[in-house]
Specification:
The protein is an all-alpha fold. The chain has helices at about 5-15, 20-50, 65-90, 95-110.
Amino acid sequence: MSTGDELRAAVGARRDLGPDFEDAIVESFLEKMGQEVDRRVDERLATLGPKGKGKDVSARQGPSEGQRLALAIVSLALGTVLTLAVIFGGKEMWVIAPIWFAVIVINGIFGSSRN
């Protein structure tokens, strides 16, 4: 299921179940997104394999410029979609702050790891 489908399902579930289940729905959505990110990272790491015989595994390169750009675009798009879901879903506005804090932290971590 794509990220958009997952988000639509979460918003639909919130609409059907009401605000009492809001926290559980958001946590479930974020858990699924975290698992998807982990899966994609594992796939990429598997395709890279060892960088060479005799090299220290801890000396791996960081993410490329293209990967950092892709992460920035995806995280900003996801942050925007989640913000719109909060606004149009009638949720409390304080939920927006943790969303954008997570976007900033994730991009900061990957942006600071240079090759």
